[in-house]
Amino acid sequence: xxxxxxxxxxxxxxxxxxxxxxxxAENVGISxxxxxxxxxxxxxxxxxxxxxxxxxxxxxxxxxxxPDETIELIPKCDLTRLQPMLDRxxxxxxxxxxxxxxxALVRLLESSRNSDRTEETSQV
Length: 124
What we know:
Layout lengths: L2 H14 L4 H8 L3 H8 L7 H10 L4 H5 L17 H6 L2 H33 L1
């Protein structure tokens, strides 16, 4: 498993857990900057860091690093028009873009959940 694959897996699990980067980094005991770099596929995480991340998900380290599991958040075909532009950005701006996009998605999901609850309440 590459660092990029591990980063994608960490990010996917974190998002599925409903946690933002700041909360998850605090839960793991690592800096927000390190988490952001790892999720973008940069850096060289130590065994201890990977073990702490796995533990935060309630997993053993081998469950986190096994390459057979993939979690797709967005079908790749939906990203085709953005990918060429994203590829032209330097790595630090790619991470910034992904962090902003993630924040927007989390807010949209929260808004959607809230509107669903409001709709359910009004039907009762």
